[in-house]
Amino acid sequence: MNLNKLHKIIRVILISLPILTLVFLVYKNFAFSGKLETSYGFDKNNPVISILKPAGRALKVEQDNSGDYFQSIIIDPVYFDLHMSTTFKAVELTFVYNAPEEQKVKVGPQLKGGDWIYAMEDLECSEKENNWCVTKLKFDLRNTLIQERKLNFIISSPGLDKSDKQIKISEIKAVLTK
Amino acid sequence: MLNAEFKKFTLDILQDVFYISLVSFFIFIVIEIIRPRFVTAYVNMNALLIVVIVSGIIVVLKNNLNTKIDI
Q1: Any bridge partners for residue B10, and if so which?
Q2: In chain B, which residues have their Cβ closer than 8 Å to the Cβ of A3?
Q3: Which of A27, A165, B8, B17 is most solvent-facing, going by the fewest CB within 10 Å?
């Protein structure tokens, strides 16, 4: 093949790469399919779900013997953010976690109308998968407080620090729907 | 002859890589300023910056070398 022709082909490929990236970014950020699914396994940063914070209440990400990454909560409450690239009406969160049996755990998004109002729901172990509890929770997002495209979620477990036990979260899956 | 032609071809490609990655980098930065996390949530801007810098250095050095030879 002529080098000039090859150069033109490579140039077209090089120009189309950023254009395709831009198309991909628009598709991902505006969720044209009406649904945005993501899963945060604590092994690498997730574009939608943040790490559990603040540090000190939630420990650093660790890895267990079976290779699962997890983050431990030692003092309640802890928070995480959902990055909302566009407007969504509802979210279904799936938590893969381990909590002491006697310890109540509640999760919920921050609501409009005040700094510390959260719509909390009980996180009860509904099924077990490889020694981890799996629980799905659905939240209506129409009355939630979204600041700088972030929706804050609380994980609360009163008395956790006094019990000397930990809640381990191994995975958070989010299915956002428009 | 063929070797010189191939060197020129490689340099032209690197020059394209430099210009296209530089323009893309600035477009992505502008989008990121207007709408934070739009790009960085999915694209590693550090990697793109490395491509810009490395290709830029090679292109500038090669161009300087060619200019000296021409003189």
Answers
A1: none
A2: 5-6, 9
A3: A27
